[in-house]
Structures are given as C-alpha cells and as structure tokens.
C-alpha cells in the first residue's frame, strides 16, 4: 500500500479522538502517520494506529507534486509525467476515502468504486453455525409461539380440576351417636335469659299474629271461594285437605282396604327418593365412577309420624351409597314406628348426630357440603310446642331452626315447622323458611295460605303420591272431592301452582 504514502488524512478513532497527519506506512493491521496533530492540540513526529481502533478516515490533501516528481525523475521534463502518474493514485485514494465516508454523496466517486462481491461475502457467512446458535439461545416454549392459537384445547382428564381423593374424608369414621343419649342438658334448669327475652317479645308477636288473622279473615272471597291448586304440567285442579281429612283417608285405607300406614310410607319414600335424586343431578352425577364426594342430605326429625316418614326416605336414599344422609333428632325417639325406621336407616348406612354442635363439627370433617335440609320436625298432626316440656327444649328447637334457615335449600314435609297446618300462622317463637313444601297425598290448606301469609317468600309446592286406592274417596262423602284419577299417571310427584 505504498501508493497511499504522502496523502494527508484525518482519522477518527473509536474513542472519539481526531488525529491529522500524512500517511507514512499502511498495511492491513496498522497505519503509521507522520507530522501528527491531535485534537487536543498535541503533536508528534510519528504515530502508529492499529486497524481495530479506526472508526473513520478522510483524505484531506494529496502529496506535493514537486516531491513526487523528484522521487520519480530528476529531470524537469519528467515532472509532468510524475504528476500524471500521481493523479490516478490520488483518485484511487480519494475513491477509497469516499467509500468509508458515509456522508459523501458524489455520484462520480460512487461510480469509480469496485462492484460488491456478493459471492465472496456469502462464503464468509456460515449459515449452519448461525442457525444452530440461534436455536440454542431460543428459550420460547413451543406452545407459546404465534401458531399456538391453531392448537386445539386439550380436554381435561377425569382426575383434573377436582379435589384429590375427595371421597376419602371422615364419613366412614364418624362415630355413631348412642341411641339412648340424653339430648337435653344434664341440669334442666330454666334459661332465665331466654324467658326474659321471650317475655319482652310476647306483645310484639301477639300483635303480629292478630294482624295476620285479620288479613286472612278480611281477604275478599276467602270464605266463598274454595282453596286449591293446579298442576303445572297438565293443568289438573287439585283441592286442599284439612289435617282431619288426611287422617280419615289413612284410617279408611287401613280398615277397609288393608293398605296400612307402613305400606303407604314405603310407597311415598320410593317416589320421594326419585325426586330427591333427580334434584341432586340424576344419573349425570350419581354414579360410582364420579370422583367427587357424594351429595349430603341432612334430615331434622322428631319423634312423630313425620319423622318416621323422613327416616324411611333417608334409608332409601343412602342404601345405594350414592347419597349421604345425616339425621338430627329434636327429641329422644320413643315411638315404636320411629325406632323401627331408625334401625333400618342405620343398617342401610345412614348416620345420626345427637346435637347441633355435633352436626356442625361433623360437617367440618366432610368434603360434601349440605345440599338439602329436610324439615320433618312437625308435620300436619302436631305443633312444635307439643315437643317442648320446658324452656331448654324451646331454646334447642330455636337453635335448630335458625341453623336450618341459614342453609341454601330447605324442604319441609306437609308444612314448615313453626306454622299452623290449617292457617299457616306462626304458632312457635321461630319457624322454618322453606324453599319447597312436600305435601303428603293432598296439599294442606296451610300450604295454600302460605301465599297470602308470605307473598314475598312463597315456597314451591310439590305433591307426592301415597298410593291411596281411588275407591277410598267414595266411602265418605267428605272425601269425594279427591276423586281425581288422572293426577298421578306416569310419575309419582307433581308440582302445584
């Protein structure tokens, strides 16, 4: 590269310094300058710059012609020849300088540049190594790439998004309560606080009962217009019955037709269990392959006919091990029919708790939430006050009713506990706020009066087939209004409106 010697150049280094001088020696690795002037004002006779430090280079002057001519020919005639020989070298250096100066836009200088050799530069590019390095540095998951939106969603397996081992809770290890445990406190002392509170509330409760009685008596058409329901599916009219009429139907069935109360109870329990299972999800949910825990039903039963029916229903529900049933008694069971149904219920896998506190503690051990609470404390043939002998009994019933009203789904048999079966007026310090009322054989007049007594919270009314023969209604003239042959045809339960 001796042809560039003597050219005045301006060099810019990568650290920003500017150096001016003449080319003394040039090679691919370094550049040696003479008469060097630095940007900070310093000077040097000779300065060597490595090629790796160069950032930019500009040609600022050409070699002196006189000096160039003496070097080539000592005669004066050869000066012009030397100048002519130096001109192409200057042009080549100028074109080289313009190639490195990106600010130079002279078209003539650009045309004098050599063509870019694409093939030679491609040989310097190793595509295989470059792509291998890119693949190695690529940390993006395959499912997170742009094309992942075309991938179909994976279906979840049966054991995903579920509680692991949900069925393995403490249901089988719940201790069975003693059948002879005293349900009330050991010292049946009078709850003075409860008496004081109830005494202060008696006046307000009496005013409420009187206002409800007055509203029921002054309702237009309440005496002349007979009460009744209509089935939601077929539109068949269904009359209401009094508690005395229901007892008369049961007596005629047993005495004249041999259709005992035990047979009627089994008939009712089968139809009612099918309705409960359908409400709990039917075959879609109730099967052995379901990894979720079985649904839980809590029965609040008393020592009466209504409690016996509820125990029969609990036995039919839990005998297949697809539904869990817990029973809480309001008082000690002493009736022979209730004890018989209780023993059958326990043998079928049902559980019993002795107190509300025990019920709450057992529910905390299970993975099954309470889905249905069955209110079987009263029925149509007695009142809650008949179950209480002192203030402690009343306080116990009030606690059970308050817990019951806090649940999501509450079903009452015949009539919500705490309400009169005929007028639906409150006859106890607290009453159950039921979502549904399950009527036995025929709806009670109290179920019809629930609409007027509680217009904003009227429950659904369902009627369950008891299997009463149609000939029973022709025996007594007071029962002939119940001769409806096409009420239960293909199903054992209908909804009334």
What does it look like?
The chain has an eight-stranded mixed β-sheet with strand order 10-9-8-11-12-13-14-15, sandwiched between helices. Strands 4-3-2-1-5 form a five-stranded antiparallel β-sheet. A two-stranded antiparallel sheet has the order 6-7. The protein has 13 helices and 15 strands. It is α/β, with parallel strands linked by helices and 497 residues long. Mean pLDDT is 81; it is low at 66-100, 178-196 and 220-224. The protein folds into two domains: 2-114, SH3 type barrels; 225-496, YjeF N-terminal domain (Rossmann fold). The chain starts with 7 loop residues before the first strand and ends with a strand. The longest helix is centred in the middle third of the chain and has 26 residues, at 192-217. Helix 1 (65-72) crosses helix 2 and helix 9 (305-318) runs parallel beside helix 10 (336-347). It is rod-shaped and about 145 Å long. It comes from Lachancea thermotolerans (strain ATCC 56472 / CBS 6340 / NRRL Y-8284) (Yeast). Keywords: Cytoplasm. Residues 62-81 are annotated as: Disordered. It is found in: Cytoplasm, P-body.
